[in-house]
């Protein structure tokens, strides 16, 4: 009997990616929440043992063997459970394109997000502008398609949709509207939220906002 365990933290979009993939595949798994991902001394023994290099979530443990890093985990899930819903396109070019945009997004979003919630003034405005520019590029890539692969909800959709639960936080703190800036992108967001896997995996945006306020207070960010 297979044992699948996911180590995570509820606000991590990278953990949400894995949750969505597992739910789309119909894979039974046990979720274990880390109490504190910010302090190594508070991280579980299982996490430190399973990911001794980076000491971070997500970690998927399949029959006792850990796999780390969200994109690697998504590829692993698709290769191991081949008979289920496919995450990755069968077309090599489409797979490469999805990987390119995920890499682009991952390299941009962390810095933009930090500037938007942890900074003020020009630095915050810079983060907001870069964030909106990033979304507009993705919106252009999406075009008029239902999902990034057309009618198929695939790897790129799964990788991008989790960050949208932070949109409310960014909008409140930076005084802008994603829907006004990128209306077609938000139509895609609404479409994705209609999927059971997405609605089950993503926390409510107001909960995320409250959490960010707690983090700002904890680390003395005014």
Shape by Cα distribution? globular
Low-pLDDT stretches are: none
The structural domain count equals 2
Strand content: 5-15%
Q: How many beta-strand elements?
A: 4
Strand line-up in the sheet with most strands: 2-1-3-4
CATH fold label of the largest domain: Glutathione S-transferase Yfyf (Class Pi), Chain A, domain 2
Q: What is the overall pLDDT average?
A: 96
Structural class: alpha+beta
Give the terminus-to-terminus CA distance. 50 Å
Text of the CATH class of the largest domain: Mainly Alpha
Number of helices: 11
Element order, helices and strands?
Answer: EHEHEEHHHHHHHHH
Proportion of helical residues: 55-70%
- CATH architectural designation of the largest domain: Up-down Bundle
State the major sheet: 4 strands, mixed
Radius of gyration: 17 Å
